[in-house]
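ok so I'm stuck.
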Amino acid sequence: MNLQSLSCSCCSGLLLRGAFSRRHFLAAAGATAATLALRPRSAAAQAVPLIPYDSVPTPLHLPDNLYFGEVSGVALNSKGHVFALSRGNTTGPAYGAAATQLLEFDARGRFIREIGHNLYAWAFAHTVKVDRHDNVWVTDKGSDMVIKFTPEGRVDMVFGRKQEASDESTAPLKHPNPPLPPEDGRFRQVTDVTWDAADNTYISDGYINSRVAKVDKNGNWLKSWGERGKGPGQFNTPHSIAADAKGNIYVADRANRRIQVFDGEGSFQRQFTIDVPVPSGARPAIGNIPNEAQIAGGTFAPGSPWAICISPPPNQVLYSSDAWPGRIYKLTLDGKLLGMLGQSGKQLKQFGWIHEMACPSENVLYVAELLNWRVQKLMLHA
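replied:
not stuck anymore, here's the structure
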């Protein structure tokens, strides 16, 4: 038989006229599906809509003689109370000082209380989240710990362990590449948490370890997945984490400048990147415009996800922020870019390294900024 080959753009292979059986087709289709899942989808468009928005002036009111430091985290509970995690209340030497403070405000922005004053786990604040039961969770990068507070503000569970101050070897953690093998129950510069409908907790870990850990509602360690690398299921600074209503887990793989999606057991589903040109005249929030080496490193690449959040159902969308050029991007859960807003700067509606976002609704965002020492409340006019 004379077999003539035909190219097929959807299958990226060869169709053999008269001999391409159903078995061959299914095999080719399966291979193509796997390839598409592994290939990062690029969230880019010829004309990305700019989302109009306003910033509410002074959304949080601090009492006299209480100040924010770098605000690394922000979250809301079911009552609309706002929790700001700040690197204020610094105590200790100029280098290696403890810098974590958790403050609660009511729905009108009035100060209520500080939670965990002088807590043993406080070292260097990273993120704060509130679960569906209004428990407040804090990740502390400096102590390598995750703390769960009850709605009343009492410590309920702790994960990880702080180095003992009396140990001769106690010192800042090193960053070997590749990292040393991780250990169950311990973290190395932990970053963030999220939950599924069964109240399992997913912990992104972190700057040194390159994995996601899963524990059940009682605090029992179930599993972890991931290692340092660039391939699917590998990470380089899993910096932020979120879950959708179906239990899929979204990981902001910051230094790899992508968002990876997994099921609740850690099986890779898909990944996508955000690729939008930097506008002419854009200015960095601090320092020089990132050079080629910095952009290649991922953290300061345009579109690199520093913080992600997912709005409540039924119509869920994902927001992601970068440090350069200082924008927030609105995407579908499949990674399609819907719009964007913002730029670097110090004024309202400008951003200085957004480190965490909260999405109480599709068109309301709270953003915590490191460089501007503040929380902004954004009202989107989509």
